[in-house]
């Protein structure tokens, strides 16, 4: 899958321990908050972008590492909810090396961000400002992660998406008379105009 992008939300994770269960809680994404993507464009996520995405089988990872799974929606150890703020994440931290290390690092404040990997399925672009603005309206959610270095990665994919949008929305030139596809229409219009002119002359001559 070549169009995977990653986005992060800093200071978005906290620990909650109740009845012997350890849970990380936070937001992997916040709606309608503009973020600078590598200086190339700004980006925001529209409310509703995760509505269908969270229905799938999503895994929680450490630093986007697929070999360090700490939760999964299918097993109920990862819970995702789209609310008025953004994508809310709850992870029941396992009693494993990765889980225990992560819990300690979050409690110490060494890890304070959450992130998610995704593929855009619906987007719009606005180029009326100083830099283009991308609005992600729908996406495929691949994973959520607790991350040590929250960052807006994979700028090149977003730039490629912008260029594809520009190409698809480039104004098309008006067809020329020499254009074979436009010629029949032009000839038909000319014949109608000539007939109208002849009819007008005949009407005038009878007066």
UniProtKB/TrEMBL annotation:
User: GO terms for biological process?
Assistant: proteolysis
Kindly indicate whether the keyword Cytoplasm belongs to this entry.
no
Q: What is this protein called?
A: HK97 family phage prohead protease
Q: Which InterPro entries match?
A: Peptidase_S78_dom (IPR054613), Prohead_protease (IPR006433)
Q: Residue ranges of the Prohead serine protease domain?
A: 13-161
Keyword Protease in the entry? The reply is yes
Keyword annotations from UniProtKB, A to Z: Hydrolase, Protease, Viral release from host cell
Q: What start and end residues bound the annotated signal peptide?
A: none
Database matches in Pfam families: Peptidase_S78 (PF04586)
From the broadest rank down, the organism's phylogenetic lineage runs: Bacteria, Pseudomonadati, Pseudomonadota, Alphaproteobacteria, Hyphomicrobiales
Q: Which molecular function terms from Gene Ontology are attached?
A: peptidase activity
